[in-house]
Amino acid sequence: RAVERLRGELEGAKAATELARREKEALNSRVIAEANARLRPDEHPIFGALMYDHGFKKVYRASPTTVWAATPIWERQRAFRQDRSAAIAKAKSALQVRGWPGTITVCELVDGEGAGPAEGAGAAEEALRCVVVDGQHRLGAAHMLAAGGGLHESLGAITVELYPKMTTPMVQALFTEINKVQAVKLVDLPVQGASDKENAILSAAVEDLKGMYKEMFKPSPNCRPPHVNVDTLRDELHRARVVERLRVESPDGLLRWLLDTNARLEGEKEARWEGAKGPQMRKAADKAAQHRFFLGMDSRWIQESALVGAEATSRAEDPDDGE
What we know:
A five-stranded mixed sheet has the order 1-2-5-3-4. α2 packs across α5, α7 crosses α8 and α7 packs across α10 (251-267). It contains 13 helices and five strands. A hairpin with a 4-residue loop joins β1 (49-53) and β2 (58-62). By secondary structure, it is of the alpha+beta class. It is globular, with a radius of gyration of 27 Å.
């Protein structure tokens, strides 16, 4: 009972802290919105100058620091990570590219927690309904740069897309849609990624492998074993420097290596996965055996096989002369 009472008190304290935080955010939003409404009556009190009205959404040229200060992050959004914003701030402080990429997605939430005033309120009141659904780390980076006196004039404006009058299910659907977009893999990045030659070898070899094992390739980059994704496999091969280590000169050479490695893994399946724990891994091992495709069981083989292959290549090119 004492533990339950303590847990109840802790939950109550957490709830009170959360309520105080929300009230403070609402007060900040109200003060900033009302002040800006008086200073710039022709602009939105939080999001600034309207650039285009699509009907279903509006696009604004906003101050990132104002949006950061006056617009709370959607409660069901991923947690804000200060280190991520710090990394963005560091990159933008170099000013290799002026301005902010992409847009900040904001929704006017009209139901559920955080819903603002009733219909018919003014712009300053309506602003209290708005929440950031995507882009909070860029806003955090702008705040960090401004606090340190390093917010360059080219970073003083950011594009905001505002979706008006959204219900919670609509915001959830939009958030899911945004986050289904796949990030660019390292292998495909200019400069830091693969060279044109390496990319051509990786792409052709993995596509040929996919053609041989169609059922084992999935469109999702986060597919479960024993499946693989084309771009994830290309990226992992690039990160392990397989083409460089094995001195592969053609897609056929890489494909042969992949097939040889798969055959080796099949021969080692009992030692590697026979005692797989959990029903999902046992099911994955069974499916891999059924299709005789083991490259998707885990990614350890990439580094292991690349290192072994590189040593074999080196020995073949520099044979022991007996001295």
